Amino acid sequence: MDNYDFKGWATRHNVLCSDGRVIKPNAFKHNDQQTVPLVWNHNHKDADNVLGHAFLEYRDEGVYAYGKFNNTSQGMNAKELVRNGDITALSIYANKLKEESKNVLHGDIREVSLVLAGANPGAHIVDVLAHGDDGEVTGAVIWFEELGMNDLLSHSDDDPKDDPKDDPKDDPKDDPKDDPKDDPKDDPKDDPKDDPDIKHSEEDKNMGDKDKKVEEKTIQEVFDTLNEEQKTMVYALLAIAQDEGEKKDMKQNAFEKDIDVKDENVLTHAEFEAAFADAKKNGSIRDAFLAHGITDVDVLFPEAQALNKEPELIKRNDGWVSRVINAVSKSPFSKVKTTGANITAEEARAKGYVKGEQKVEGVMAALKRVTSPTTVYKFEKLDRDDVLDIVDFDVVVYMKKVMRTLLDEELARAFLIGDGRSAIDENKVNPLNIRPIWGDNAVYTVNRVLVPTEGASAAVKAKQFIQDMIRARKLYKGSGNPSLYTTEDELVEMLLLEDTNGRVIYDTVDKLKTALRVKEIITVTPMEGVNRVDGDDQYDLCGIIVNLADYNVGADKGGQTTMFEDFDLNFNKHEYLIETRVSGALKIPYSALTFERKGAVVAG
């Protein structure tokens, strides 16, 4: 082809590119004899960047291109840059790639670009035709040594002074093939074995060996100038170049989208090199890539690594749950009966005997109640496809753990204050089977009502709460030393109390629990905002004093907490059920104290 302004290699086969790919023979064979746009630096979003066209010729060594500039001002300017040897590198833009282990096996070349620095070391201008000079041809050749992994930085540099081989005009003896008039075999088309990128002359080989140490030293010096962020980028690129994978369509590659796609996000060979060069100068890899129009910078960096194997649960503070579950007493039978006798009545007292008089029997009121079990459960389903697709962690094990957590929380809540659901809610835990301490029969739970003065401050209310707990302690008939279960807000207000001199009275929880004569103070999240309404009055729960060893939880053999699994063939779902069948109730009369604060009048 004679009617061209320049010719050269658009891409070369079996050469390691800086993006880690190797273009294999026949990858672009079907592009032979096709004409594609000639563009500046792959900027095909703007028609002003179309400099002309390139005629493609497939060869065993790669794809050869004959470039022809148009008569636009941009085309003429580019023509002069090429003629003067200012621009020497070529780069292709391709899509619809097939790749195996970083080897490009197939693709469609959509355009050829003039670039400042290419990624394929063999892609460069070979001959420039100077029209109007009686057929004189000026050579403009870039010579590339065979690249090793350490050379991935050096060939992206734009300064021709880094290597005397970059400018053939510096020494015409450096490469006798630079001038096609001197040797008609210079054109690799005529004899591909003479192409400088395939086989070096002995003189050139010696020259390359001589300069190799200088180049390696320069690479080290350049690498030492990088900051830690840039060095991390280099390591990532080297890892990509060595990566091995299964044969597949590229899900996100350098040439994925068509040229005419609006707002495309494509990383071409030349853009990568130019952006990386800017990063070395500016110190910011991210800013450099954004400046080159590459918006999805994260694809160039290693993927984020999960700090936790399983998702963190967004849940209420549940530290109290295990303390409740572990504190209650347990029986191996679910239907339980509690009995007692009230010996505090005046009639039950022992009596003095008068000689000759009839003895009067004592009167002891008998107490008895029966509590039957109920079932509490948690049921979940997982689609089988989700179970197979989630590979970061064992989703089934995770699901079972979450279900157990929620079941325990529901039980602990039911023991203390009930489940809080409406009486008509079909999911309500029956309070006659699991009897909550708050609201239990007055024989078992002594309820105290605090009535603060109108407009009382939080400090006044907290002080009243402390005083009433201390006074009511004599009513406690439970076993051992009890614990106080309350809310975080109530605890904070008690700890903030000050004396008349402004000094904190209870500067630690230990001092407060000593004053209240309790073993420990446990804050219970579900108690926050819990209240009951009686007529027009609202009563807010403040605290519960109880030793949970006096609360019995019964379960028959087989009724203890059990996990079941099943599979729904019709809907392809795994089904998981965790349930328990238990009863729960205080077993000792007057073994619990509850404290309520009378609140605002409920609007009628």
Query: What is the approximate shape?
Result: elongated
Helix content bin: 10-25%
**Overall mean confidence score, pLDDT:** 75
* Number of helical segments with 4 or more residues: 11
**Strands, total number:** 23
The structural class is: alpha+beta
Main pleated sheet: 10 strands, mixed
Q: Mind telling me the C-alpha Rg? A: 43 Å
Q: How many individual domains?
A: 2
Low-confidence stretches: 130-217, 246-267
The proportion of strand residues reads 25-35%
Beginning-to-end CA distance, first to last residue: 98 Å
Describe the structure.
This protein is an alpha+beta fold and 604 residues long. The chain has two domains: 6-300, no CATH class; 374-601, no CATH class. 23% of the residues lie in helices and 26% in strands. Strands 1, 2, 3, 4, 5, 6, 7, 8, 9 and 10 form a ten-stranded mixed sheet that branches. Strands 15, 16, 17, 18, 19 and 23 form a six-stranded mixed sheet that branches. Strands 11, 14, 20, 21 and 22 form a five-stranded mixed sheet that branches. It is elongated. Residues 130-217 and 246-267 have low confidence and may be disordered.
